[in-house]
Amino acid sequence: MPAKRDYYEVLGVGRDATDEQIKKAFRKLAFKHHPDHNHNDKTGEKFKEVNEAYEVLSDPDRRGAYDRYGHSGAQGIFGRDFEGFNFGGFGDIFDAFFGGATTATRQTPQHGADLRHSITITFEEAAFGCEKEINILRTENCSLCQGIGCKPGSQPSRCPDCNGSGQVRRVRQTIFGHFVNTATCSKCHGEGRIITEPCSQCRGTGMEKHQRSIPVRIPAGVDDGIQIRLSGEGEAGHRGGSPGNLYVILSVLPHEFFIRDGDNIIYELPINFAQAALGTEIEVPTLDGKTKLKIPAGSQTGKVFWLKAKGIPHLRRSGRGDQLVTLFVVTPESLTEEQRRLFQGLANSLGTAKRRPEKS
Prior knowledge:
The chain is an alpha+beta fold. The protein has nine helices and 15 strands.
């Protein structure tokens, strides 16, 4: 038989530890090694070892004998061997110390579960809003028994084990005294009632699945990832609880050429060398249709034009963002002979390009 470990070492405390420190160490280790919470093969032995150490060190006389004579002193003064001690009741003690006394809450009304559904909309639908319909499968109260679970015309009966409370109380005798344990009734599972004639449609559950088509109004100005809450459109509640909510998560498709920046939109406008040098008037697309934009002579790549109130409508206030039109001058990748001749003549006449002076 292996030698027993020092009891102070087992609890992880010093020999000068106070009663409160010993008790605190015991509670921590008992919780860690209790068989109900730890299924390791060595858990039972460790739990017995922790309890044995606490039995000795929590008793002043026994602790004094142990400090003077070691394990033989602690056992001999009381005439019993811990190896033969029955620890079968420590599960009850553990329950009493660490939450075994519980209050059943199953009878209270329970809010229904929330549901989530994703839909994809276009860039324009996000900008201006739209109406959509979504199909969801959700749990609802049984249409035959109205959620009671009983056959129409019958009623549930009171549980004989808990007398309708949904809880059972047990008094347990331990070495620490009497402990009252309150737990959920195993017969009615905390409901306080028993259904003797279950509904034929829901089989006593009071619930059934239904496919529903639900309209969704999407406001103007929404963006990718926004959630719209539809109150009360989730799963049905239990025992008279309110239904959950339905959250519709929006996914916005990218636009062919617009880029969104908050409530502004950005459009890149390509122009050629001649248009940039001479100036021109070009039609540019907007969310409201095409509009004419005047490009002044000498415009450079990166120049930005602002089209006021041509952007995304603000979601929570009136007005709209703007559209930003950014120029970039396109360099031709291939030229005809005639174009090459003209560009060469233009290059000769322009000479070497000079750096533009910086604005002060």
